[in-house]
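Posted in: Structural Biology > Protein-Ligand Complexes

Title: Requesting predicted complex, nickel (II) ion in pocket

I'd be grateful if someone could produce the 3D structure tokens for the following input. Sequence and ligand are given below.
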Amino acid sequence: MAIRNIREIGDEVLTKKCKEVKEMTPRIKELIEDMLDTMYEANGVGLAAPQVGILKRIVVIDVTGEDPYVLINPRILQSDGEQTGHEGCLSVPGKTGIVTRPNYVKAVAFNENMEEYELEGTELLARAICHELEHLDGHLYVEKVEGELMNLSDLEEEEEEQE
Ligand code: NI
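-- Reply #1 --
Done. Output follows.
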């Protein structure tokens, strides 16, 4: 297990378009393992390869902590509905912002054995799929934030006041 360094906003690698994966190799298998380790270590629900400096179309997502998905060369086939809520990114530490996303997404991707599969998700999973796939084209959620980007610490204070 290896934890990789997470690149942060301002790093050029996060603005690049990633290349398709043509075949599984031991190096890519290791990258995927490391991406999962790195995501769990950082308490994230998703991580895209460019966030660890690799310009390949690979994403890992786990919104429950026990149900990891590996998405290689993913594409969104269908989306429906709308959800508006807080979003964050391991590459934009300490920040959060309001983003509107589809409430339902169906994607097609290859798994770590290069078998094609479809993944459907609603709510947080739909949000994570959209967010992570945008990383593969060099986009960050901060481009879509409605209103101001907020500090997570301010948000936590606000929530405490409400209690
Ligand atoms: Ni992100």
